[in-house]
Design brief:
It is built from 11 helices and 16 strands. By secondary structure, the protein is of the alpha/beta class. The strands form 4 sheets. It has a 7-stranded parallel sheet.
C-alpha cells in the first residue's frame, strides 16, 4: 500500500442530547475524520479525541496539529506491506495515541478492501454479532434517568452503565438497583475519586455491579491495585491503559479484573490487539469502550469487538442514540436482543456519506504524495 493521498477533516456534529460525565458536558462534537487513498481505494477512520483535555491529554486541536505537522510528514508517500508497518513510522511521537490511531486504522480499512475481506475477518474476529450496552450520562433528574433506562432495556440493550461523580453516586445507584433488581449494571467514574474515598466506594459493593470503571486518577495503576483489594466489585480500567505494557502491569499488580479497550486511547489496532492478547492470556475479559464517535469510529469499534476476548457488552450502540443523522450508510442498528450484526462486505462494511460529510465539514486539508505540501485548505465558518 502506497500512502498516496491523505485528507483530514473536522466535522461539527450536534449530539441529540448533552452527555455529562464527571469531567464535563458535551453537546457539540468536533469530529476528526482521516481519509487515506492507496491503490485507488479510500480508507476511513476517526480520531477519537474529545474537545477538551479532560478525558486524556489530547484534544481536537492537538490532534489536528500533531496529525498535520508530524504524522503526515512521516508517512506520506511511504509504502507499507501491512497496516501494522505504519506504526514504526510514527513511533517517535510520544503520546498522542488518538492522532496516531487515526492513520493506522484508515490503513486497515484499505487493507481489508484489498483482500476483499471484512475488517472483522482481517483482524481475526470470530463473532458475527456483538453484544451491546449503553453508557448513560449523569442526569439532573432521577425520574428521567429511570425512564431512560426503561427505554434502553425495551430497545434490547444488555447492560446499563451509569456515569457517576461525587454526590451523584451511591444514592443514584441505589434508586436504579431498587427499580431494576436484575439488570446487569456498572458505573464509570472517569477518575473522579481518590483512594481516601474507598469507604464510599465500598458502599457500592452491595448493589451487585458487574464492575466499577476507572474510579481513581487517570494516570494511575498502583493505587487501583490498593483499591481493588478493598472492594468486592471488580475494577475495570479505561483511562489508565495506553498500551500493552500498562495492561500487563495492571493485571500483574491486581489493579483491575476487566479492561475497557478503546482503539484511540491505545494508538490503533496493532496495540489494541496486543492489549487484547495479554488480557486473553491472563483470563481478563475485555470490552470495547466508546468516545461519542460518529458512525466511522463506531464502525471500527464494531470490527474490534468481534475479537474472541470481547466477551462483555461494549459501549457500542446505535447511531440513533447519538445523532439525528449519521454520516454512514446504513446507520448502525441494534436488534431487540441487544446485538449488532457485523457487516460482511469488504473493509469497514459501511459507506461514508460523502455529501453529508461535506455539509458538516468546517475545515479540511489534503496532502498528495507528489507535492508533500497541503494542496487544498478549506475553512468554512463553523
Ligand atoms: O469513559 O467511557 C468513557 C464518552 C466520552 C469520553 C469517555 C467515555 C465516554 C462514554 C460514552 O462512556 C461511550 C459512548 O457511548 O460512546
Ligand atoms: Mg470510561
Amino acid at each position: 500500500m502506497k500512502i498516496e493521498l491523505i485528507t483530514l477533516r473536522e466535522l461539527k456534529m450536534l449530539l441529540k442530547a448533552p452527555f455529562e460525565t464527571s469531567f464535563g458536558t458535551t453537546l457539540e462534537r468536533r469530529i476528526l475524520l482521516v481519509e487515506v487513498v492507496s491503490d485507488g481505494l479510500s480508507g476511513w477512520a476517526e480520531i477519537t479525541t474529545q474537545e477538551g483535555p479532560f478525558y486524556n491529554g489530547e484534544t481536537t486541536d492537538t490532534a489536528w496539529h500533531i496529525f498535520c505537522d508530524f504524522i503526515v510528514r512521516m508517512v506520506l508517500g511511504k509504502t507499507v506491506e501491512h497496516p501494522e508497518d505504519v506504526v514504526p513510522l510514527t513511533q517517535a511521537i510520544r503520546g498522542h495515541e488518538m492522532a496516531r490511531a487515526g492513520l493506522e486504522n484508515a490503513l486497515w480499512d484499505i487493507a481489508a478492501q484489498e483482500e476483499r475481506s471484512s475488517l472483522s475477518h482481517l483482524l481475526g474476529g470470530t463473532r458475527d454479532e456483538i453484544p451491546c450496552g449503553v453508557s448513560l450520562g449523569i442526569q439532573a433528574d432521577m425520574g428521567k434517568l429511570l425512564r431512560t433506562i426503561d427505554r434502553e432495556l425495551a430497545d434490547g440493550y444488555q447492560r446499563i452503565k451509569l456515569k457517576i461523580k461525587p454526590g451523584k453516586d451511591v444514592d443514584v445507584v441505589r434508586s436504579v438497583r431498587a427499580r431494576f433488581p436484575e439488570v446487569p449494571l456498572m458505573v464509570d467514574a472517569n477518575s473522579a475519586y481518590r483512594l481516601t474515598d474507598a469507604p464510599l466506594l465500598q458502599e457500592l459493593d452491595q448493589f451487585d455491579l458487574t464492575m466499577i470503571e476507572q474510579p481513581l486518577n487517570w494516570d494511575d495503576i498502583y493505587l487501583h491495585a490498593k483499591l481493588q483489594r478493598e472492594l468486592r466489585t471488580p475494577v475495570c480500567l479505561d483511562e489508565s491503559i495506553h498500551n500493552a505494557r500498562h495492561a500487563e502491569a495492571a493485571i500483574e499488580l491486581g489493579a483491575c479484573q476487566v479492561i475497557n479497550i478503546k482503539l484511540g486511547r491505545v494508538g490503533g489496532y496493532s496495540e489494541a490487539r496486543r492489549v487484547h492478547q495479554i488480557c486473553r492470556s491472563r483470563g481478563i475479559p475485555v470490552w470495547c469502550g466508546g468516545m461519542l464517535e460518529s458512525g466511522v469510529g463506531r464502525a471500527h469499534n464494531i470490527a474490534l469487538s468481534t475479537l474472541p476476548g470481547f466477551e462483555l457488552p461494549g459501549d457500542v450502540s446505535a447511531s440513533r442514540r447519538y445523532w439525528h443523522e449519521d454520516i454512514i450508510e446504513p446507520e448502525i442498528e441494534v436488534s431487540l436482543s441487544g446485538t449488532i450484526r457485523v457487516p460482511l462486505t469488504p473493509g469497514l462494511g459501511y459507506t461514508v456519506r460523502r455529501k453529508r460529510v461535506d455539509q458538516l465539514t468546517v475545515r479540511k486539508q489534503t496532502w498528495h504524495a507528489t507535492t508533500q505540501v497541503p494542496v487544498t485548505v478549506e475553512t468554512q465558518s463553523p
